[in-house]
Amino acid sequence: MLYLTKDLFPVFVPLGVVGFYRYLWFIIKLLAYFFYRPMMPKSNPTYRAEYDVTIVVPTIDAGEEFKEAAHSWLANNPKEIIIITETKMKDALQELANSVDPTKIRVLTVPKANKRLQMVEGIRNTTSEIIVFADDDAIWTPTCLEYILACFEDPNMGGVGTSQTVKSVGRYQTVWEVLAGFRLTIRNIEIAASTHIDGGVCCLSGRTAAYRTCILQDPQFQYEFTHDFWLGKYPLNSGDDKFLTRWMVFHGWNTYVQICKEAELLSTFKNNWRFIKQVLRWTRNTWRSDFRSLFMERRIWSRHPYVAFTMIDKIFNPITLLSGPISVIVLSAQDKFHLPIWDIIISYVVWLMMTRIIKLLPHLFKRPQDIIWVPAFLVFGYYFAIMKIYALFTLHEVGWGTRAACFCSLYPSEKIKNWNSSSPDDKKSLLPGATST
User: Fold this and answer.
1) Please, are residues 227 and 114 in contact by the beta-carbon 8 Å criterion?
2) Which of 166, 189, 351, 430 has the smallest number of Cβ neighbours within 10 A?
């Protein structure tokens, strides 16, 4: 690469420094990942699933995949499973629950589809010490709860997450599912590293995460959780897992993530272009949550400085990622190199492919057949950088993107406009009351 750029060496020095930083940062994460160890269950644990765990599942459109997921939850022997859906879906969900286990699965409803209201309804109806939120397609290992509960031996432990991997919707994984798998591999490395370095994590993924019930049954938590507005006027429904993670950090509770086969969950992802909409929603949630953590709440700086630094790093990541190819394209167009343009382009692409393969080695060791999709991951990486910039300027868009139901429909526009001038009692009236059936 030095030979390719020798005529413009001073121009590429800053890019080289950026590249050195990025891969040094990756090596630090990788080393921390290798030194990370999960918490092991005790022979005489304080908490037992059959007495102390309620699984809460907010859903509106659970299908056949729910049965497989529910059977995997029941294999962990929880005290109870509570499904919360909207009123019009009650009969369909009840029939689905009865086909699995009517003695352990209870179905509750809220008037309209709204994930946070559904979660709060589940919280209010929980009588166990630990609540585990799960997506309706999250498939657990038989030892998942045992390893989750091991972390709660620490009396200051507030929330616990798990590692994840992709479950194919069809017989084979589509390119979109492989991309999701690549992202999960990198995420598992990052959260294991942050957990090992300073005990923090950017987000306890809502696909499966456990919390102490006493924290979530606090009326102040429930009020703020269901009255969460971006810039005071855009009601947030998604991003519940980010909110929960920030709540743990701000209120002095510890968090942990169990990165191990015993606590790894399988989850389905969109197997078509709608995966991009999922990623866009997650990206907006990340921007909003990270800004709040870093600049409004600010507790993250003293409790988990490594995690705070990773958040800052992600802010500038799109710029550093795009700087390389933009520089090569501009200088090639200006004919600034001493070699033919195709030599430059091919050499640069080969270099990028090699570096991406190195980053994905933990994934490729498990699924070597996915190596054919590394070029797609390379292209998606640059698309994602542009998407992050776009997401930054569209944070006011709070819809799910992949669902017909939208949190915004629960809030008439005239009520949203008057939100900032309302008293706490008036604000409560803006939210539809949740009722159980």
Assistant:
1) no
2) 351
Q: How many residues does the chain have?
A: 437
User: What's the Cα-to-Cα distance from 94 to each of 80, 105, 131, rounded to whole Å?
Assistant: 15, 9, 21
CA dihedral (433, 138, 255, 238) positive or negative: negative
Distance CA 307, CA 199 (A): 9
- Tell me the three state secondary structure of residue 89: helix
Whole-number Å distance between alpha carbons of 147 and 183: 24
Using pLDDT thresholds of 50, 70 and 90, give the confidence band for residue 8: low
pLDDT tens per residue, range 368-403 = 999 999 999 999 999 999 999 999 999 999 877 555
Angle at Cα 245 formed by Cα 242 and Cα 250, nearest 5°? Answer: 120
d(CA 204, CA 210): 9
Longest CA–CA span in the chain (Å) reads: 75
Q: For residues 267 and 131, what is the distance between their CA atoms, to the nearest angstrom?
A: 19
Burial category of 202 from C-beta neighbours within 10 Å (exposed 0-12, middle 13-18, buried 19 and up): buried
Whether residue 340 is predicted with pLDDT greater than 80 in this model: the reply is no
Q: In terms of CATH, what superfamily is 1-35+47-429?
A: Spore Coat Polysaccharide Biosynthesis Protein SpsA; Chain A (3.90.550.10)
